[in-house]
Amino acid sequence: MNLLLVVMTLMLGQPSPKKSPVMNQDSAAISGVLENYFKGIYEGDTALLSALYYPGTLLFGDVQGKPYFKALPEYLDGVAHRQSPKDSGKPFKGDIISIEVIQSIAIAKVRVKMYDFNYHEFLSFHKLDGHWVIVNKMISDVAEH
Fold it and tell me: What is the rounded distance in angstroms from the CA atom of residue 124 to the CA atom of residue 145?
């Protein structure tokens, strides 16, 4: 029991790690990519969306309880051939929940409310040639209570 108290005291007494200026710059850059991501989805802008993704990106998850898998070209084709949320007149909201950066990799947790869907998403990023790109998208459509 005493060992547990010592360990807990040491853990709780440690200062939280400070983010480096580079990490803050990277988080800000990823936030900018995410704002364009939300804009691209809202407007149905496949050119903008295409520029944010690595060409080999895969998309996985579940929508309305059914498995979802698409390669990037198939996803962009779907965006191109649906009515955009902007044109539908239905509510749209994109929120950044968190961004975590480790050197040249990062993950963003976001929520996208569009049409009758409430998507929770994990977007994986990689910094290539000085630019952050989405390399994987995982989504789950979560019913609102």
Answer: 28
Report the chain's C-alpha Rg in angstroms. Answer: 18
What CA–CA distance (Å, rounded) separates 91 from 68? 23
**In a 3-state reduction of DSSP, which class is residue 30?**
helix
Other Cβ atoms closer than 10 A to 26: 21
pLDDT, position 21:
58
For residues 71 and 80, give the distance between their C-alpha atoms in angstroms, rounded to a whole number: 15
Angle among Cα 22, 29, 82 to the nearest 5 degrees reads 155
Could you tell me the two tokens for 124?
């994986």
CA distance from start to end of the chain: 42
Q: What is the pTM of this model?
A: 0.83
| Low-confidence residues in the chain, pLDDT < 50 | 1-18
How far apart are alpha carbons 141 and 118 in whole angstroms? Answer: 5
| Phi, psi at 66, each rounded to 5° | -110, 140
CA distance 102 to 49: 24
- Taking only the tens place, the pLDDT of each residue in 33-56 is 999 999 999 999 999 999 999 999
